[in-house]
Design a protein that fits this description.
Blueprint: H1 3-22, H2 27-62, H3 74-122
Length: about 140
């Protein structure tokens, strides 16, 4: 149970106790008062949520529309490279043992391809996907 829930439960109990003491003639006012407090709590929660989402959107815009990725860390990239090299040894042996040089080349083409895809995924623009605009480039295309 959240701290706000505990406070709201206390408010409800206090409202019910006041109703018992004051009688039926004040019931409408007590219910309205309690509902106003609930409404304020809901408005506060919605406002906090909207502010948090706005801040997250501003961070995405500030990063150049590039959100954080779990694979952006150096350790994960290094780990991927190590695993790739460790698996390259048996793949090279199997490919070379079964199909000799063509099998060896196919195994290494697969290893290089997987690493190229991983590099392109974690570094968009690595293979010329994005080009920086120089001061000599014109906004008008001929």
């Amino acid at each position: 149970m959240d701290a706000n829930d505990v406070e709201l439960k206390k408010e409800l109990n206090a409202t019910l106790q006041a109703r018992r003491e004051l009688g039926d003639e004040y019931e409408s006012a007590l219910v309205d008062s309690f509902l106003e407090k609930v409404d304020q709590r809901i408005d506060g929660a919605v406002e906090r949520r909207v502010r948090r989402q706005m801040a997250e959107q501003q961070m995405v815009v500030a990063r150049g529309s590039r959100g954080p990725k779990a694979t952006d860390s150096w350790g994960e990239r290094f780990g991927f490279g190590i695993v790739s090299m460790v698996l390259a040894i048996p793949l090279s042996a199997i490919g070379g043992g079964i199909a000799h040089l063509p099998g060896f080349l196919v195994a290494w083409a697969g290893i290089v391809g997987i690493n190229a895809v991983q590099a392109a995924r974690t570094n968009p623009g690595l293979f010329g996907g994005r080009r920086r605009k120089s001061s000599q480039d014109s906004e008008w295309e001929d």
